[in-house]
Amino acid sequence: MHNAADLVFKTLADPTRRSIYERLARHGEQNVRLLTDFAGVSQPAVSKHLAALKLAGLVRDRHEGRETHYSAEPKGLAPLIDWMSHYEAFWRDRFDRLETLLNRMDQ
Amino acid sequence: MTKPEAAPDTLVIERAIPHSPEKIWRALTQAPLIEEWLMRNDFAPVVGHRFNFRTEPMAHWNGVVDCEVLTVEPNRRLSYAWNTSGAHAEAVLKTVVTFTLVPTSGGTLLRMEQSGFRSQDVGNYRGASYGWQKFLVGLERVVERLA
Question: What is the ipTM of this complex?
Answer without folding.
Answer: 0.76
